[in-house]
Amino acid sequence: MSSFSPLLFACLDVCVVKAIRLVQLSPLLLPHPFLTLWGGGLTRAGLLALLALTSPGGGLPGMSSFEGLQSFGVLCFHFPVYTTLLWALGMPTEQELWGWHSWERVLQGYLVTAVAWLYWSRYVSSLLLSGGRYISSLLTRAVSEGPKEGPKEGPKEGPKEGPKEDTSASLKRLMGYMRPYVGRIVSVLFLVTLSSYGEMAIPHYTGRVADWITNEDAPDAFTEAIVFMTLMTAASAVLEFVGDLIYNVTMSLVHTSVQGAVFQAVLKQEIAFFDATKTGELVSRVTTDTNDMSEALSEKLSLVMWYTARFGFLLYFMVIQSWKMTLLTCMGLPIIWFIPELTGDFHKAIAAKVQESLAKANQVATETFSCMKTVRSFANEDGETERYRRRLEDTYALNKKESLAYAASTWANSMTTMALKVCILYYGGTLVTRGDVSSGDLVSFVLYELQFASAVEAVMHYYPAVKKAIGASEKIFEYLERKPQIPPDGCLAPGNLEGRIQFKNVAFSYSGTTNESNLVLKDVSLEIKPGRVTALVGLNRSGKSTCVKLLERFYQPQAGEILLDGKPLQDYKDQYLHDKIAVVSQDCVLFARSVRENIKYGCEDASDEDMHAAARLASAHEFIMELSSGYDTDAGEKGGQVSGGQKQRIAIARALIRRPKILILDNATSDLDAENEYQVHQELLNQANDYSVLLISNKMNVVEKADHIVVLSDGIIKEEGSHEELMQEGGLYADLVKKAECGFHRKEEETNDTH
Ligand SMILES: Nc1ncnc2c1ncn2[C@@H]1O[C@H](COP(=O)(O)OP(=O)(O)OP(=O)(O)O)[C@@H](O)[C@H]1O
């Protein structure tokens, strides 16, 4: 910290001013007061700048910044500029020319400089900064959009962590959603303007009534004023009501459409996106974030709108009443905000400490209660009480400070507001005495000023909240604009599908890299022939389910290709593909709807006959009929109302109702007992002439019935052939079968032992 304190600096400044005053009295400069005024200002600025920048300790803090230099400018030149303006307007300047170095003027100069500094550093610069940010964002966008023939941007890597407060971009997108309601929004703005104008009636006509009381020259003036005031105020209230109603209904519509669009956009994303994004985050985007945004828009933006309109009218009427008093009000406002802000900051800091101290006390209590047995066994109840009491004493000491800070902050608030009002009244009174304004004008002005301060305060309070909410909506829009990172589906939907699937040298990793260590499938080539049952077996985590996920187009292989009837999978329509390839996996999920709705899921047009047929094929019809309400029984959350095996059979029926060409059973009957599993498989495999079946199962007695068996190990096809062929080969498959048999015998022995 520089040893040159601001106080010493002010003393030096006063010395400089007094020295210039002596110079002004010299016979050479006496006839040229304007020269001394401007020359003095320049000399004062030069000397002060020199002192500030060269003072020991690296100069006066803050003085080398833009705000510092600007404050110098205001301090040294506001008076020369003001006097020159008076002279240019033909007004008397004697008092200013010869009295600018008086104590009163010097102090006034410091006050003006402080106000200018406050305005600049707290309010104007932040406005300019956001304006600058907007311009720079426009420029950046213009540059990045660049020449049209430039390289196209690659697919985006998920929602990027862009600049947090790119409010303008989010606002533009939001405006896009408001476009259909532009008529309503224009009418709301019109109503806001009219209603705010109507609100000016009370202060205006109160002033007129005050004039009538003092003069009593126009007998009708009083009644006229009261009638106009009542009519305008009532009209303003009605307009405000209608405006609010239209605005809130419109914002609800905007909210609904944004929320629906976000939900739809999220559903369109590729499965890898859902793997990488937590469900909680997605739900929060769709619900909490859109709600917060819409709340900020319907509540806070509406307040900003109303108060801005009021602010405009109040300023206009205040300037009309007296521009001098308006100037005084505008000068006083930053002071009445700044002082409570300072005390408020102190109060907030203490309040945070109180919270912290309370949390510590609570921690002692929680710890003691949760370890009560230990406390009792050491007979340390008094020790713990003492510990808790010490914590509470800390909190009490902080509470005392907080009360003091709160009282000081409230006192500062009311004192500064009162001081401004007294100043305005005093100054207004002088103007009334001089005959510059009528007493009614002063009354109107004071009433305007009361509303003006709160309007400015409200705009300043709510505007950042609106900006923040709009900025926070950026994430929502990132989801809305995100393109799924999987090639778009094609348009093939042939009426006649054979159902032949070929994997050709497929390599795949979940991370998207082709790094050998990350590859789950390294080089997989296999064929699922139409009308036949193909089994895919292998150790755990060998990549069997991954093959299924690729078939469902949840992910895209990094190398190789997957063909359906000789055509790449991505050439088919997604809807068609999911109709033709039905997958039932071990962790199949039912929705909290009726069994009927679950079986007909995505296939709502299917008839009840189709549903019964599918359920019979899945060996599910009989147990469904035994449920309390048959097909109308609620399956419960995630199918919690039915057993695991029943859930799997309903899921198989759900797959079969689409009459698929390829049926994939990925451990789909794992929750069934041996007898039921056998029955389900018999039913399904008997129909295999209608569809191709890909069977993934750890149960080798099920697998051995397949026409063709493919053995996958560590992402590579190790063996393939019929059960007999593979057993003869004596490789991995034979090993798996032996192990399974061993396990089965051990289980059997254990069961016999227990008997
Ligand atoms: N969504 C995913 N993201 C990242 N890695 C995954 C994902 N799903 C599976 N894996 C990994 O891929 C590998 C193969 O898993 P996969 O489920 O295909 O094997 P599996 O042969 O079907 O195993 P299991 O018989 O145990 O079901 C495993 O190492 C697994 O951890």
TrEMBL record:
Subcellular localization, as worded in the UniProt entry: Endomembrane system
Gene Ontology MF term list: ABC-type oligopeptide transporter activity; ATP binding; ATP hydrolysis activity
Spans traversing the lipid bilayer: 35-54, 66-89, 109-129, 181-205, 225-247
Keywords: ATP-binding, Membrane, Nucleotide-binding, Peptide transport, Protein transport, Translocase, Transmembrane, Transmembrane helix, Transport
Broad class of where this protein is predominantly found: membrane
Location of the ABC transporter domain: 501-739
InterPro entries for the chain: AAA+_ATPase, ABC1_TM_dom, ABC1_TM_sf, ABC_transporter-like_ATP-bd, ABC_transporter-like_CS, P-loop_NTPase, Type_1_exporter
Region called Disordered, residue ranges: 144-167
Membrane-protein topology: Multi-pass membrane protein
Basic and acidic residues composition-biased segments: 146-167
SUPFAM superfamilies: ABC transporter transmembrane region (SSF90123), P-loop containing nucleoside triphosphate hydrolases (SSF52540)
Domain of life per record: Eukaryota
GO cellular component: endomembrane system; membrane
Pfam families according to UniProt: ABC_membrane, ABC_tran
Protein family (similarity comment): Belongs to the ABC transporter superfamily. ABCB family. MHC peptide exporter (TC 3.A.1.209) subfamily.
PANTHER family according to UniProt: ANTIGEN PEPTIDE TRANSPORTER 1 (PTHR43394:SF13), ATP-DEPENDENT PERMEASE MDL1, MITOCHONDRIAL (PTHR43394)
Name of the protein: Transporter 1, ATP-binding cassette, sub-family B (MDR/TAP)
Origin species: Zoarces viviparus
